[in-house]
Design goal:
CATH topology of the largest domain: Rossmann fold
CATH superfamily of the largest domain: Formyl transferase, N-terminal domain
Number of helices: 6
Strand content: 15-25%
Structural class: alpha/beta
CATH class of the largest domain: Alpha Beta
Number of domains: 2
Strand order of the largest sheet: 3-2-1-4-5-6-7
Largest sheet: 7 strands, mixed
Bound molecules: 5-O-phosphono-beta-D-ribofuranosylamine
Distance between the termini: 19 Å
Radius of gyration: 16 Å
């Protein structure tokens, strides 16, 4: 299976996926391309260091969201990508993109969806006062943080948590959940029935 990674920053989830592939934990899978909308994304630099194919695309060079996404889709197709992993990609993707890779785009979000979609999910969780937080790997559809849920991992929220400490606790679980979800897809072990994803 050929994966395309889209990222905008640090790229720790990308690294977790790559490391699981390198360790042989995800069968018959390779990262075919890493694409970023930020030239200075640490994840993009790391991908280049690893000798992976990298692409930087500045949205300002394109006339609108769909034109930008058409270029991304072109790069993904050129690289033969079968599964797109959004890994801290800080852009809303267009219906065109979703349609081109229907049920083949996944994302990780730092909350137990459907709670706290959107930005600053960990801060939202702290401010709400929930006792448990976590992360969700889900398929991507036209609505933000909305698609069918593949996996979730839960962490406690502690009395003296700050946004940083809670984010770090969640991130540790993200690095387990994302490679695990990619492995389930690589092994053909997900069966989608409407909103529900069964692990078989
Ligand atoms: C993660 O918290 C992820 O859940 C969210 O963006 C962050 C990306 O972090 N979508 P990284 O770039 O993978 O380190």
């Amino acid at each position: 299976m050929k994966i395309g990674i889209l990222l905008s920053g640090r790229g720790s989830n990308f690294k977790a996926i790559k490391s699981a592939i390198d360790k042989g934990e995800i069968p018959d899978t390779e990262i075919a391309v890493v694409i970023s909308n930020k030239a200075d994304a640490a994840g993009l630099a790391y991908a280049a260091e690893c000798g992976l194919k990298t692409v930087y695309l500045n949205h300002k060079d394109f006339d609108g969201r769909e034109a930008y996404d058409r270029e991304i889709v072109k790069h993904l197709n050129d690289a033969g990508v079968q599964l797109v992993c959004l890994a801290g990609f800080m852009r809303i993707i267009s219906p065109y993109f979703v349609e081109q890779f229907r049920n083949r785009i996944i994302n990780i979000h730092p909350s137990l969806l459907p709670a706290f979609p959107g930005l600053d999910a960990q801060k939202q969780a702290l401010e709400y006062g929930v006792r448990f937080a976590g992360c969700t790997v889900h398929f991507v559809d036209e609505k933000m943080d909305n698609g069918a849920i593949i996996l979730q991992k839960c962490v406690p929220v502690l009395e003296d948590d700050t946004e940083e400490s809670l984010s770090a606790r969640i991130l540790e679980q993200e690095h387990k959940a994302y490679p695990e979800a990619v492995r389930l897809i690589a092994e053909g072990r997900l069966k989608t029935e409407g909103r529900k994803v069964k692990i078989i």
